[in-house]
Amino acid sequence: MKIAVIGSGYVGLVAGTCFADSGNHVICVDKDKDKVTLLKQGVPIIYEPGLEDLLKQNIYEKRISFTTDIKQAVEESEVIIIAVGTPQNEDGTADLQYVLAVAQQIGQNINNYKVVVNKSTVPVGTAHKVSNTIKDEINKRKENIDFDVISNPEFLKEGTAIDDFTKPDRIVIGGKSQKAIKIMTKLYAPFLRTDNRIYVMDNKSAEVTKYAANSLLAAKISFMNEIALLCEKVGANIDQVRVGIGSDARIGQKFLFPGIGYGGSCFPKDVKALIQTGNENGLKMGILEAVEEVNDKQKIFLFEKVANYYEGDLSAKTFAVWGLAFKPKTDDMREAPSIVVINALLAAGAKVKAFDPVAMDNAKSIWGNKVQFAKDAYDVLNGADALIIHTEWNEFRTPDFSIVKDKLIEPVIFDGRNLYNLEDMLEIGINYFSVGR
Ligand SMILES: NC(=O)c1ccc[n+]([C@@H]2O[C@H](COP(=O)([O-])OP(=O)(O)OC[C@H]3O[C@@H](n4cnc5c(N)ncnc54)[C@H](O)[C@@H]3O)[C@@H](O)[C@H]2O)c1
Asked: Which of 44, 46, 339, 417 could pair with 392 as two cysteines, CB 3.0-4.6 Å apart?
């Protein structure tokens, strides 16, 4: 099949590469010339495990190409996938300007029947808006060209995106055209060989499914973070509570780890957008408002622990930071909780030195030289008063604690991800603060 993917970011690039790898011919479009130049050379522009090899292989096999020319991509393709960003507006609603700009360009260049796929996360009713935008452009040209709009939200997770895309839990296809649904089913067939995990529904239900999924996951995080805070108050241990509740099959073990709040490019904006969709429809989304409120508090909670320990005076302190990205195995810094903690430390007059295995380039564009970036996890400890952990990268899980103790001025760790055993820390002689224990 010939496919155009418009927007070559985390979602578009992974989707384009995986569709190419399953034998399709894919043209990836991005409006950012620099990205396109790098992508043509096989430089994946984002950190995602396994992506670089797959990308290079498919460029070599001539199944994937990159361009800024949307006209050619639209004309040559049967399926056009929209995968541009939908950031939040100031009022929390989703900003649809990029999606609708692409829809307009599709309408200006469409030359025969196409399936237009909304893969971006978009509020309910967007498929209709995209369809009308394309129709308007076709009408301006006084032409009569058929097309269908399918809502196909993406559920991949950064860090495991290739696996998630090629072995999906489910594929949601929203639309009513049997012709388009058949084409979509064929497109995903290589990834669904063991069983048919395709759920066909109407466009609106597909659009709500994506927001509901992310909001429920965010709710799980906020719930566990709130219970963790309660554990601290009453002297219980969240680790024990977690396994106690997770053993109930109705609850499940996954996504029950407390931490320093959810971040990233999806949960924060998607929870906000769903609250706004509720508002626009006269419905107060009370649970989601609470999810957000708890998350905002949780992001500053680690800083408060640090400030309490030093009795509010951080002005002469230097902190070493392990982990900047919002989660491991990604370089994505969007809405990372580390931003809130580090900004609070800097505002309190502290010095911050940081190390992250892959996110430091993106972090430099946030802090420049306000934060000192180190070459590795031990280098960052030199001359620091204490260590603060934001991201649970594997390499932080079993460090050499004798080196950690040697390098820190005082052996203190503030761990936002509960990486270490409390008894071990006591035995090693580290003053250890974690979440809910
Ligand atoms: N990142 C994730 O983990 C993830 C997961 C599931 C869904 N989503 C959703 O997928 C969508 C894309 O997210 P992302 O993280 O890939 O975004 P991103 O910012 O990484 O990439 C978007 C790309 O679109 C390009 N673009 C914008 N307007 C364009 C235009 N008119 N023509 C061509 N290119 C254009 C940008 O230059 C950018 O490279 C969002 O709606 C997001 O909510 C993201």
From this structure: 417
